[in-house]
Specification:
- It is a single chain.
- The chain is α/β, with parallel strands linked by helices.
- The chain contains 9 helices and 11 strands.
- It has a single domain, classed as 3-Layer(aba) Sandwich (Rossmann fold), CATH 3.40.50.150.
- It is 32% helix and 23% strand.
- A 7-stranded mixed beta sheet has the order 7-6-5-8-9-11-10, sandwiched between helices. Strands 1-2-3-4 form a 4-stranded antiparallel beta sheet.
- Strand 6, helix 6 and strand 7 form a beta-alpha-beta unit.
- The longest helix is centred in the first third of the chain and has 19 residues.
- The structure holds zinc ion (ZN).
Length: 281
């Protein structure tokens, strides 16, 4: 039996029941050190008992390789010295948790979960999904189901989740449209898609990461672009909430300076939270 030496039996069963091939959606066979698709023969690695569902196509694409490497580096740096201050994180988690509401007995997927700190605060059957193995190892330590892969190619069967969360993700990913399409597939017909993104953000502030990280925030969102992205992909927005938090950047000196500013006096939302549902409902 796979996983049982370290992983809980529950996790083993979960993966066998809910994962599918990212290349062809085929049925998977679980071996000791890898996962194999019975339909197209694609192979996926298992590292530290975490299924890494990257397709061979993605792994041979140079841009994607660089992207994955960049986020492993960001994860490593973040785990050493948190990118966002813990008070800001806690405030944001509380706010997002309130926005989502009751999740008891719900199947939840957090895309770009990082080390699972937000999921940890939620009830339900929770899956931490991230591009970074460094983050997922931490998520596993707090007993979350951890799966690696790309948001643009989710390795879950159709209509698996009641709630899919993309918090601070859509501004990072290479292909947001693809992510939305994948969410549509994995979400149950009456499920909720929860999005949180920076609102009308000035991307120039990420210039300070030039040379350090190749990829940071790739785009900003406003009401119009968010509506279009969802509408074009068969989602309708059912709730929306704007939030203001103090900005945070990884350089402590800049962080302190920004936090000293009376940001609320600018009267401009910094984040927006959305709940979207499939249009047929
Ligand atoms: Zn396959």
């Amino acid at each position: 039996m796979v996983f049982l030496s370290i992983y809980l039996k529950e996790m083993d069963n979960y993966f066998k029941k809910n994962l599918c091939c990212v290349e062809c959606e085929g049925k998977l066979e679980f071996k000791d050190d890898c996962i194999k698709c019975l339909d197209c023969s694609s192979e996926f690695k298992i590292k530290n008992d975490i299924p890494l569902m990257f397709s061979s196509q993605d792994c041979s694409n140079n841009l994607m390789k660089e992207y994955i490497e960049c986020y492993e580096k960001i994860a490593k740096d973040d785990l050493n010295d948190s990118v966002t201050e813990i008070e800001t994180l806690n405030e944001r988690y509380k706010d997002l948790k309130n926005f989502i509401g009751n999740t008891k007995d719900k199947a939840i997927l957090d895309i770009g979960s990082s080390q699972g700190l937000f999921l940890k605060t939620m009830e339900g059957q929770k899956v931490a999904f991230d591009i970074s193995l460094n983050y997922l190892r931490e998520a596993k330590k707090i007993n979350l189901l951890a799966v690696g892969g790309l948001a643009e190619a989710l390795p879950f069967k159709s209509e698996t989740f009641d709630i899919v969360i993309c918090s601070d993700i859509l501004e990072h990913v290479l292909a947001p449209e693809k992510v939305i399409k994948e969410v549509y597939k994995t979400l149950k017909s009456d499920g909720s898609f929860i999005i949180e993104v920076p609102f009308e953000e000035d991307l120039l502030k990420y210039k300070i990461y030039e040379g350090k990280y190749k990829f940071t925030h790739l785009r900003n969102f406003n009401d119009k672009t968010l509506f279009k992205l969802l509408d074009d992909n068969n989602f309708r927005i059912v709730r929306k909430k704007y939030s203001m938090y103090k900005a945070s950047l990884s350089l402590p000196i800049i962080r302190r300076l920004l936090n000293a500013l009376p940001i609320k006096s600018f009267k401009k939302p910094i984040f927006v939270q959305l709940e979207a549902k499939k249009k047929n409902l």
